[in-house]
């Protein structure tokens, strides 16, 4: 008889505990899993390259300077066509080394175009650095970094520099979820990645 009363006392709390989903509690691990699995976080960073005649502003941008330094592009001064400024303009082309580097990464349909993209890096979650809960809403601060996918990504994105972002979560009846649209207390994960700051 005493065994039955012990079982009767222990069974309801055990059943109640089993009814709780792991998503009912916003832990750092759950936040990390949801952020890392989001489409915005998993989307690769594309690098867009324009060949042909471009403005001096574009040719002297940091990304193009890196490509010049690597010997992947070269440019010759040209007169600017109407509507393109500031002068001088540059006629940019891939060098033989640039063709070897870029061509395997360019999709078949873009190989004849003068403006194309290549995947360069992906995001890697480093750590969840804080969670602030306010009722059924929470802001989660996290650090992340770029991981180069190829030689171009390695030239343009430091794998060591970390960024700090904050995104919002909402507690629904089935557990915590990332916010897909703006809420008063925070921002979407896509906005959080766009508004990232270097981490200290």
Description:
With about 200 residues, the protein is of the alpha+beta class. The chain folds into 2 domains: about 100 residues; about 60 residues, no CATH class. Helices cover about 30% and strands about 35% of the residues. The chain has 8 helices and 9 strands. Strands 1, 5, 6, 7, 8 and 9 form a 6-stranded antiparallel β-sheet that branches. A hairpin with a 2-residue loop joins β7 and β8. The N and C termini lie far apart (about 60 Å). About 20% of the residues are buried. About 5% of the residues have low confidence.
What's the topology here?
Blueprint: H1 2-19, H2 28-37, H3 39-42, E1 45-50, E2 52-54, H4 56-59, H5 62-69, E3 73-78, E4 89-94, H6 96-102, E5 115-134, E6 137-148, H7 151-156, E7 162-172, E8 175-178, H8 189-194, E9 197-198
Antiparallel strand pairs: 1-5, 2-4, 3-4, 5-6, 6-7, 7-8, 7-9
The total domain count is 2
**Helix coverage percent:** 25-40%
**Average pLDDT level:** 88
Please count the beta strands (DSSP E, at least 2 residues each): 9
Order of helices and strands: HHHEEHHEEHEEHEEHE
Quick one: overall form? elongated
Radius of gyration: 25 Å
Strand content: 35-45%
The end-to-end distance, rounded to whole angstroms, is 62 Å
- Number of helices, where a helix is a run of at least 4 consecutive DSSP H or I residues: 8
């Amino acid at each position: 008889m005493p065994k039955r009363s012990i079982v009767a006392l222990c069974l309801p709390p055990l059943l109640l505990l089993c009814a709780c989903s792991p998503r009912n509690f916003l832990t750092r691990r759950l936040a990390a899993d949801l952020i890392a699995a989001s489409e915005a976080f998993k989307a690769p960073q594309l690098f867009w390259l324009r060949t042909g005649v471009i403005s001096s502003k574009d040719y002297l941008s940091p990304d193009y300077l890196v490509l010049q330094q690597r010997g992947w592009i070269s440019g010759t001064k040209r007169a600017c066509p109407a509507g393109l400024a500031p002068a001088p303009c540059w006629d940019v082309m891939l060098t033989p080394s640039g063709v070897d580097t870029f061509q395997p990464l360019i999709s078949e349909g873009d190989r004849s175009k003068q403006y194309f993209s290549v995947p360069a890096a992906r995001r890697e979650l480093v750590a969840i650095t804080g969670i602030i809960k306010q009722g059924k809403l929470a802001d989660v601060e996290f650090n992340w970094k770029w991981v180069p996918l190829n030689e171009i990504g390695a030239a343009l994105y430091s794998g060591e520099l970390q960024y700090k972002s904050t995104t919002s979560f909402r507690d629904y009846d089935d557990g915590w979820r990332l916010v897909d649209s703006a809420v008063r207390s925070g921002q979407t994960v896509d906005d959080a990645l766009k508004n990232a700051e270097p981490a200290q």
